[in-house]
Each structure stands twice: as C-alpha cells, then as structure tokens.
UniProtKB/TrEMBL annotation, chains A, B:
The lineage of its organism: Eukaryota, Metazoa, Spiralia, Lophotrochozoa, Annelida. GO terms for molecular function: asparagine-tRNA ligase activity; ATP binding; nucleic acid binding. This is asparagine--tRNA ligase. Belongs to the class-II aminoacyl-tRNA synthetase family. The keyword Chaperone does not apply. Its EC number is 6.1.1.22. CDD domains: AsxRS_core, EcAsnRS_like_N.
C-alpha cells in the first residue's frame, strides 16, 4: 500500500495531467510518436530527442526532432526571440511547449515551443553524419555505435523488437515454453573448426573439459522437450564461419523449437507456416509505415508483393527429388546443375522460389548423406525426414526434421557419420534410453527472416553490432 | 486463403472436436494440465507423457502421468484386461480414453483408459531416478539432461518462462524496446582476468582484434539508448569467475535496461520497484500452485511472507552512509564491521534486509572508489549516484546508476580508475561527444531474482544447464 502511495506520488511528480487543480500542472513527457498521435493536440508537453534538421526563416525557426520511436519527425516551431545557444544538427534537446494542429501539409501536429534546452551539443564538423543526407548503408556500417540514430537503422531496431515479440507470443499462445539453453557447451562439432572455443585468461581452459560456444541449442532443447513437450529458445548462436558473404554472420539470432510426441514432418511445416505467416501479417498490420519506409530504401523490387506472399499465400511444398528434377528441366539457366545427392547453391534456391511464383517453398526429404546423423530416415533407405524452408531473395531461413528416437538407429547413424567420440554423446543417447519419444524440431534464422521482410541485402545491417569474419570488431 | 484452407484441413486432422458430424470424430490431444481442467470431463482424449507411478490392484491398474505442464499428475485407470507390455516407471506413453469425474478424493478428473501405448520404455534399474522417491537436489544436479523430468525441476523451468515473459511484457508496455547486444565484444575489462575469450580452432584469434565474451551489455545499450531512449536486453552474461559459492555462475541471465533523458536515481528505483513487484505479484496470482510446490520443498522458512513482501510491501531505501552507521550500531553481530569506504559482505547485506523487516532495500550512493568509472558523481565529491537492491536471502539482485554523460568528467574518471587503453573506449566517448544525454541504467540478476522467489539455495538449481567454476561441464 505504502509502495503504491509512493508510486502514485512519483508518478504525480512526473506525469501530472490528471492531478487535482490545486497542484501545479506540470507538462506531460511525451515521445515523438506519442506527440504526433495526440488528438486533439492541445496539451502542454515536454519532448526530448535529437535534432534532425534546422531551418531558419526571418521570424521563425523550424526544428525537426526525432527519438527513434517513429520514422516521422516532430516539427518544432520557435519564434525568433527564443534564444537557443549551441543548437546544431545531432544535438540532444528538451523542448517544452504546446502541441497544436499544424498549418502545414506535411504533418498534422507540431510543437509550438516555449523553451528549447540543449542537453548535449554536437560538433557538425566532427559528427560522421551530415544534416539532410541519407548516408550509404556501407558508410553507416562503420559507425555501429552511432548508426542507430539514423532513421533507417532505428527502424530496423524497432522491427527486430516487434518481430521477436510476435514470434514469442505466438509460440506461448500455442502452449510452448521458452527455455534458456547454454552458450558454453562441450560440443565441438567433431573438431570441424567452425566453432569458437571459450578460454580463460592467457588462453587457459576454465572448466574441467574444453568448452565451445553453442552452434545450435538443439541437443539441449531435445533434453528439455523430454520433460516439457513443447519448448523453444531464442538467442545468439556463434559460429567461427569463414564465409564472407552477405548472408553470414559469426554471431546471429536463432529461434529453435522442439516438440515431443510428434513424428510427422507436416506438424513442423504447419507450425512454421502458421508462425511465420502470422508474425508477418501482424507486422504488416501494425507496422506498415516502418516496413514501407524500409522498402522505399531497398534495392530489392516488388517487396510489398513478396512480403504479402510470406504473410498470406500458401507455402508451397516439394521433395528434394522433385526439386532436382525441376532444376534439371531448366538446366540452361545454371552454370552448374546439381545431380541427385548434391546440395543446392544460392542460384538454385532462388530459382526454386521463383518457380513457385516467389512464394516460400518447403523442400523435404534430402539425401541421407547431406544431412546430420540425428535426422530420422525414411523407409526408402535413401532420404531423411527433414525440411528446409526457402524464402524469396534470401534462400534458406529455416530447417527442421523428425529426430531419430531409437537408440540403435541413432548409434548406427553416428557410426556411419564417422563420429569417433561417442562417449561425449552418452547423455544424448540417454534421452533415447529412458522413456524416449518421437520428436521433431526446427531452427529459424531470425536475421535472414528479417532480411526477407525488409529487403536489406547485407545481413550486417539487420543486427545492431554485427560480428563476421570480414568485419572489424570495434566495440 | 489456400493456406488457411490447408491449415483448416490439417487442424481438422489433429483436433476434430468441432468438425461436422459426417467426419470421423477423432479424440482431442490434451496435455496433462488441459485434461485436469476439462470441465465437464466428458471428452474422448489422447494424453501423452511419462509414467510417474504404477499401482496394480486386483482388477485395476492405476497409472500416474506427468508431462511438465503442471505439478499435478493425471490419474489413469486401466482395467486389468488391458494389456500394456513394457510399462515401467519413466516410460513415455500415449493414453487414449475418456476423461471422467474421479471417485477419489485426490483429484477431480481421471482418465478412464481404452488404450495405453508405450512409446519409449525405461529400464528402472538403469534409470537414475526411482519411482515415488524425491531425490536430493544435489543428486539430481548430476543428471542435467534428465532432471527436468522431475516435478521440482520442471516447475522451475515453467516459472523461468513465466517470469521472463512478465518482465518483458511490463517493460514493453512501458515503452521500452528489446534490443540484441553482442556476446562477443572487444571489452576485456582491463585484463582483470575474469572475462572469457573467444578463440577459433587451435586457440587462434578469429577477428582482427581479440574478442571477449560479454560481462555486461551496458556500453552497447548506452549506444542504443542514444537512438531509442528506452531499451533493454535480456540474455546470457559470461564471467570467468573463480567463485565457488552457491550464488555464482559463469553463465547467467541478466536483464539490463538503459533510459536516456533521465538523471534522477529515483526513476531507476521507481522502475525497479514497479517492475519486480508487479512481476512477482503476477506470478503469485497466476502460478500460486507452482510457487507453493517449490516453497514446500525449500529449506528457507516463511517464504510466502518474503515473496509477499517483494510483491506488495514498499521497498525500503537508505544511503550507503546510513547503512554503514546501522551496521556499526550492531557491531556485535558481525565478525568484521565495514568502515566507510569498504564494501559489504553477504552477512551485512542479510542484516540490512532483516533490519528492514525482511523487505527489499535500496542502498544508494556508494563511495566513488568502490564503483566503476562510468557512474556519475555526487556534488559531495565522495559518492556516486548509484543504487544496489538487496533482497531477502540472496542479497544483491540489482544494481543501477546515473551514467556520467559529460565527456571531460568521464575522461577524468577513467584516468583516476587507472584505465590505460582509453583508445579502446573512443566509441564510448563518442556517445558523450555527439548529442550526449543524461541517462541511467540498471541490471537485474534474473537467476538470483528467481532464487529469492523460490527459496532455492543453490543458483545451479535455477538454470537448466549450470556452468560454474566448481561444476563439471557435461553437455
């Protein structure tokens, strides 16, 4: 009770619009998006943010203010007798005034200002960004600590937040539990060399065994799904990948899901279809302005159509074998045409998607030799129960499979894959030894998913602080 | 549209309770918690899970089924003419039958079963857990891959999910954006030796600079808060900490928050108070059964009172100086009494909480020398604008401060702290160089927060796969 009282008092101190009349009426603190949505715009407010442009006229100064909460600026109108020392592009300010209907076309609301206080000035010569200039995305990438202040990069950040939230909330509504799987594991992926190792001071081991950074949470999720049947984890994955393409990062975000009591690959595809299409539908519905702003600045054409297809069209499906047949039928279009048993390249993935009218495509049942040991085999003795989801522009965004739940088959698969340190997998075999269950799982590359939605060509521009083999690590 | 149709069809295939009469009526698939909540319990269902006990009587067999969705079991009643080969404790099963009102006191609903299919058997001799035995928490800790199947450990997992969700949703409702800060950074904490380093194959560097695993997302959050003023991140933190206490992990979860345009420490304490107390209030409200189950198995006394205080009482506040005075007044109770300028030990933290009637206590304004360079100093020239939150039983769960936003003061602080590689912080100084803003931030130790709520003494039992200096890393 006392806590509530205290909370009331402090709330009163800061947001006093509904206090009784004997108290001093203090202005409400608003973000830019809140200001622009004030209707009718009659209130005394304080708005804080960074100056994105200054226009001085004879008797009046127009300032534009942004604070990362919307792609729009708040126009601030200051009469010339208002002294504002140190005001430059990039400065942070606190503006106090009255929100009024704007007489100008570009905005409905503007701030008729009484006082502008510069909180932090900004030397326009030294500041890497210039007023009224949309700097190249490659140029901005050099200033990871400052680029989120650019409207484009700020919008990407907001969309990351909204998309994460929608994915989580869909899964939770469907009865999934979010779990926390470890960053440091004993899994070295058979010394394949593309894992990071965690060492202590002077490159010494810290634990009793070498510890590696997670390349997938799958095995830990499988353990948890044998206790709570529907689980997911959403977090960073680290791979010491030497790829220097615009689709690879050394640190990226993955949503991984595991479902026990499920041995039907179509439960995986149905879930992925519903999860992704509803998330995208939601984003279009609630954040159309943000998406359109990003699309406007993308080199990818017809993004609205693509994203609409992701949200609303039926996801297509074909087997790996059918995909190979399609590619071979159109062999003239490729430098190299994959034979059955070989993996697809980016050009083949792109072709398969365009073959399906730029709709997402599930490609199912790959050859055994192309996929990891934990996938359940089909009765044909040639293929596994797996699925890859291909998206327009970006290619693979998701992979899933039915897991082998029989301990003898699993051991055989491990041997055939050439795994030597089977003793390191004893705990994993235990899951099949004690109350084993048929189960499926999948992983969605969150950054690539956002690339597809935004038309951002380089994955380094989707994450705020990218880490990749060809990129300097500066902070 | 076609997608929706396909979704309908597949949904129909699996959950047919509301299909039209000409279709075959297939039983609904239920979790244990859904079964127990079916009211009236008349439906044909399929329930899947693991066998937690078997009681054979003359003409009837009673099975108990659990699936991690509740602390309760579903009682399955099988007439003896029902053959169930390979059924043992720990087996996974699929049971088909009809939910009916139970004639027994212990439960309202039970499953009158027509068919029980064992999906994965379990050798009761080899399985580390025995039927009807609550194994010691230390014993269970040895089997990280299997222990979530124990009701206690499964309940902790569910609470982690619910608490994470509530914290996120409170902050989002308050206008905060969740951002993703990197695991790999250049910050080596001045070679203090308690950071992990990420290396590639054969202990080689991977990037152009040495990369370390994050010990705090604060600096990256500060950069983002200078673009979107209210941000948070919730994820793993890695510290090569040699502590072997029951309060330390090498990998733990932290919720970190940064607020721009805020220079009042009480905005931090108000936010923390509201965020944590409402989260706890929610958990008590919605997950009382789970909490009570964990409290029943805790050695900590009077947990309900403690947790109620966290949810409903006013959080107390005192300055560091007042805290020292209180401790000195009760000097007889301690082996060592801290003088002004020295840090508190666990016994002192515990005393301060009990001094405040076992309510959470904010201790504010510590001596400059005890705290990091980025904290803003008070005008007294002796203390900083910081706050630590102490909780009953666990001590410090949260720390926050006003950040130094003036570049000259920040440089002075860095020099006085003995930081040599100031060039590595140039990007951080840029934040104060270009449009600097007064800002505050804080970090909440999520695992310790849950320890306080559940009465779990060892932090290794709060996370599913603990990593710590004294603990073998097995998976």
């Amino acid at each position: 009770m006392f806590r509530l009282l205290r909370k009331c008092l402090t709330t009163t101190r800061r947001f006093c619009t509904d206090t009784s009349s004997f108290m001093v009426r203090e202005p409400k603190i608003c973000t830019v998006v809140q200001s622009l949505n004030e209707n009718p715009p009659t209130e005394d407010v304080v708005v804080r943010g960074w100056i994105s442009s200054i226009r001085k006229h004879k008797n009046v100064t127009f300032l534009h203010l942004q604070d990362g909460t919307t792609t729009d600026d708040l126009q601030i109108v200051a009469l010339d007798d208002l002294p504002i020392p140190n005001l430059t592009y990039g400065s942070s300010v606190e503006a106090k005034g009255r929100l009024v209907r704007s007489p100008y076309d570009k905005q409905e609301v503007e701030l008729s200002v009484e006082e502008v206080k510069v909180l932090g000035s900004c030397d326009p010569e030294a500041y890497p960004f210039k007023s009224k200039k949309m700097h190249d995305i490659e140029y901005r990438r050099q200033f990871q600590h400052l680029r989120p202040r650019n409207k484009f990069d700020g919008t990407v950040l907001r969309l990351r937040h909204e998309a994460s939230r929608d994915l989580r909330s869909y899964l939770t509504d469907e009865g999934f539990y979010e779990v926390h799987t470890p960053i440091m594991t004993t899994n070295d992926c058979e010394g394949a060399g593309y894992v990071f190792k965690a060492v202590a001071h002077e490159n010494k081991e810290f634990f009793d065994k070498p510890s590696f950074l997670t390349v997938s949470a799958q095995f830990h999720l499988e353990a948890l799904s044998h206790a709570i049947p529907k689980v997911f984890t959403f977090g960073p994955i680290l791979r010491a990948d030497h790829s220097k393409t615009r689709h690879h990062l050394s640190e990226f975000y993955m949503l991984e899901i595991e479902m026990a009591f499920c041995d039907d690959l179509h439960e995986v595809t149905d879930l992925v279809d519903a999860l992704l299409s509803e998330t995208v539908d939601n984003l279009i519905d609630k954040h159309e302005k943000d998406l359109k702003y990003l699309w406007k600045h993308s080199e990818v054409e017809d993004l609205m159509k693509t994203v609409d297809a992701i949200a609303k069209e039926s996801y297509q499906g074909m087997t790996y074998t059918e995909a190979v047949e399609i590619l071979q039928k159109h062999r003239k279009q490729f430098d190299y045409v994959p034979k059955w048993g070989e993996d697809f390249g980016k050009e083949h993935e792109r072709f398969l998607v365009s073959h399906c009218n730029q709709c997402p495509v599930f490609v199912e049942e790959y050859p055994i030799a192309l996929k990891p040991f934990y996938m359940k085999r089909n009765v044909d003795g040639k293929t596994v129960k797996n699925v890859d989801l291909l998206y327009p522009h970006v290619g693979e965004v998701c992979g899933g499979s039915v897991r082998e739940d029989n301990i003898d088959n699993l051991k055989r698969n491990m041997e055939e894959s050439g795994i030597k340190n089977i003793e390191a997998f004893e705990w994993y075999l235990d899951l099949r030894r004690f109350g084993s269950v048929p189960h499926c799982g999948l992983g969605i590359g969150f950054d690539r998913f956002l690339q597809a939605l935004t038309g951002i060509k380089n994955i380094k521009d989707i994450v705020p602080f990218p880490r990749s083999y060809d990129n300097s690590i500066t902070m």
